Structure formats: structure tokens, C-alpha cells
Amino acid sequence: MLANLKAPVKAILGPWNHTYPHDAVPGPAIEWRQEAVRFWDQWLKGRNTGIMDEPRVTVYVRHYHPPDPNLKEIPGEWRGEDAWPVRRTQMKTLYAAGDHTLSGAPAKPDLHALKYVPSAGAEAGFWWGEVLTDQRPADAYSLVYDTPPLDADLEILGMPKALLPASATAPLANWFARLSDVAPDGSVTQVTGAGLSGAQRDSDENPKPLEPGKVYPLEVEMHVTSWVFPRGHRLRLSVSNAVWPMIWPTPYPMTTSLAIGGEQGARLVLPVVPFEERPHPKFLPPDLAPPPPGVRSEGGTWPGEWRATRDQVRQSTRVAWHGSNATQFPWGRETQDEQMTYEVADDNPAVSTVRGEIETGIHLADRVLTLHGVVDFKSDATSFYYTYKRTLLKDGKVIREKSGNETIPRDQQ
Hints:
By secondary structure, the protein is mostly beta strands. The chain has helices at residues 33-44, 136-139, and strands at 11-13, 57-62, 76-81, 90-96, 102-103, 110-115, 143-146, 154-158, 161-168, 174-182, 188-197, 216-221, 225-229, 234-240, 255-260, 267-272, 296-311, 316-329, 332-345, 352-363, 368-379, 383-394, 397-409. Strands 4, 5, 6, 9, 12, 15 and 16 form a seven-stranded antiparallel beta sheet that branches.
């Protein structure tokens, strides 16, 4: 949007996931609302607030940190840029080689195969952009390519791309590309990533099956990111055919392959930003108003508890997530409890399930109202099956129920 809008633009690109900048976890949390007011005063009220004299794009450039889902603040610095994409960006291509290295020169032709393990990839999170654990367990089920240790810091800012000449032994497969920072101690911090359904290689609207064994030139554009890879660290490209439970498994046992070598072999394209002295904008700390009298919050639903359990005999994996919170008001108390359970069997990927439950309680002086919802979603080789049930209780007794179900053809999913 920033690259294509012709109207005046002002953007703040922070390292946050699904949150507002003033209450971001992990931080840095900033006060952004006064910047928004300055922008709207300029364009809606005709006041010269000076905001358009400042850099049009303010971006938080992330610096390296070890993998840690409990990180409180992401290291880095704010920087002002006059345009997006940044004008001095240089696109750098790194080629995958047969020895699983990445370098600036095309390698000899080779073919790397990867067995489909539907339960692989839980360490990559529930969605792109989370602060994650060490990615080595996910990389164990991926084709992995590393650069030599860097001889100088390397900054990227933008959308990396993985260009993958790929094939599968089944008519439906997914491909995922993840870019990571490998520290000298071997720990792996994920920087960004993305995925592509092979059926949607030409069109999202009109998916088509793959021809087994045929090589397709796939382009995986990763999510926008910033990162400074330190000297002595390595860049890693990981290519897999599953990132579960983020993406629903495809239904067929199979093997996928990646063509290596030559100018059109598997490669990574990076938006490298050379160093330049730029303004470093400063933001005020968040203006967090105290809660009204008598209001007190406890806990927080996200990130909650997340456990992955693998049954080695059944060759199945279960991921369970649970979160809860409560708020005390002068009139009573509101509670919320959520949980999600995902299951998949590696030898039968067509059959996969997820169950979600949520319970909201309103605790008043003379009664307790409880709203309970349960969703079950599962698949076989041809269809998805959805059922949902809502129940309203008063003091533990059911006073109203509603349920529904639907069968949905998989249609290249």
C-alpha cells in the first residue's frame, strides 16, 4: 500500500504483532495517538502540524535477539525514511547448493527431496510475526540452506522472496519458506516467513491440482520484516511442506522435491539496506490512563499455555493451547477461559481435527450467567466438517441452546 498510494502518506512500522503500539507486548510500546491526531489535523482541519515535514516512514529496525517467546522488549532502533521501498535498497540473491549452503553464485544442478510429515512446524507458531522458540525442531523437518558466517553486519528491510522450482508426488501440496538468524552457538531465531499452496500457484480464486512430478516455478513472498544479522552469524533459508497447526494439512502422503543449481534453481532474494545516517525519531512513552475506580484486570488470554505432545506409537501429534483472564467491576466480575486442541496423524494426513472451547462468565450479586461455546472442525480426504454449539446458563442451569453444522468440500485445500 505504501509503495502504490499516490496520496500523502505517513507510516509507523513497528515490530508488533496483533496489538496497538501503546500497549504492545513485547515492546517497545510507544505513544502513537498524538501522531495520528497531528496527521488528521493536517488533512481534515487544514492545520500545518509539521508532520509532513518529517520522514514519511518511521520503521523500527530489529536487532538480533536469541529465540525467546517470553521476550519483554525487542532490541532495535527507530529510524526515519523518506520513501517505501527504501530508495537505497539493493536486492541480493543467494543460491541454494547441493551441500545445503547459500551463496552468491549458482550451484551445480541437484534435486533435494523431503518426505511430508504433516505434524511438522509447530515451533513456527500459530501465525507469522510471533516471538518464537528455537527453530531447530522445525528445521529438522525442512530442507535447510545456510550462508557462511557473515564478515560484517547485514541489514534487511522489506519483503524477502524465496524462488522455488518445486514438485510433488501428489496432486496437492503446500510449500513454506522461513528466513532465520543462526547464532554462533547454533540457536535459530526466526526472522520472517510465508507459505504458498501449490494449487494456488497461478490464481488464488481458481486453484488447480498439481501434476505429480512436474516442476513448477513457485514464488513465496515473505511477510514484511526488518532485521540486522550480526557479524559472525549465518542466514538460513528453511523450506518445508508443513507448518502445523498454523496451516491445515494437505490430505495425501507424499514427497516434495526442490530443484537446485543454475540461475533458475532454488534461491533467496533479500532486500538489503546499506548503512546511511538517518534521523532517529523519538516517541513519548505510552499514555496509559489508570482504570476506572473499582475496575481491576487479572491475567491475559494471550500468549497463555501452549503444549505439543507427540505419540510415538500412533505417530500422531497434539497441540493444546489454553488462556484465561478476569476483570473485576463495581457491579461484579467477568471471566473468560479459552482453549484450542489440534490433532493430526502423520500416516493419515487427510484426517485432522481442531476443537475450540470458550466460556464467558458474568458473576453478579444475585446470579451467574455463563455463555459456553464449542466448535469442532475436522476433515477427511474429500470434505471439512464444521459443528458449533452455544449454551447459555444461569446459575449452572441451561436456559438456551443453539447449534449448527456444515459440510464443506475440500476443493483443492
